[in-house]
Predict the 3D structure of the following.
Amino acid sequence: MARQTNQRVRDVFGESGIAAEWIAAACAGKEAFATAQMAHKVATKRRLPSSHYRCRVCGLWHIASRRK
């Protein structure tokens, strides 16, 4: 899925640096995990909402941030 999204971004922006910058900026500042279990484990340890999602850009798992 992430590869398809990355390819769509490259198709729209071409092979210029804009596509690479957009892909890099989409996950900037977010912790990335290889598995959903690891994201859940880290969120639980930090007493964060245990909501996690698979990123469509990089294909890794991120912890969802919820504001109260």
